[in-house]
Amino acid sequence: MDIIKISLLGVCGVILGFLMKGTRPEYTCFITLGIGLTILGLAVGKIAYLFQALDQISESLPVDGSYFLTLIKMMGITYIGQFSSGICKDAGYQATGVQIELFCRLSVLVLCIPVLMALLETVESFLI
User: Fold this and answer.
1) Per-residue pLDDT reduced to its tens digit, 49-106
2) From 86, 90, 103, 116, which residue has the greatest number of CB atoms within 10 Å?
3) Residues 6+ apart with CB under 8 A from 82
4) Phi/psi zone of residue 73: left (φ > 0), alpha (ψ -120 to 50 degrees), beta?
5) 3-state DSSP assignment of residue 40
6) CA angle, corner 42, sides to 39 and 43, nearest 5?
7) Distance separating alpha carbons of residues 62 and 85, to the nearest angstrom
8) pTM to 2 decimal places
């Protein structure tokens, strides 16, 4: 049922933004930002459940905890980057939105390097 609430909230926000665009175009960015923050607030429960599941997995598997921390950082980077990029694109600043997306992709790639190195070391130890 949550997805229906979120979808209706988003559609109502788009309709409100569309109606305001003709009379008060300066408020459309604020409407987009407000709807986005409201949806983010509603998603906190899902994120908390995700963290609990990751904690349970990390307790049951003999895996270094830093890998789970890296995974959480990657999820945060992608969500915040997509959110802020979408706001920039809605406001008419497509170039800034694309630059945010590029920076987020590079940040995730940088976070992946230690995990990739550990994987390569594990594969190398099996080959020797």
Assistant:
1) 887 887 787 778 777 777 778 888 888 899 889 888 888 887 788 898 899 999 999 9
2) 90
3) 101, 104
4) alpha
5) helix
6) 85
7) 37
8) 0.67
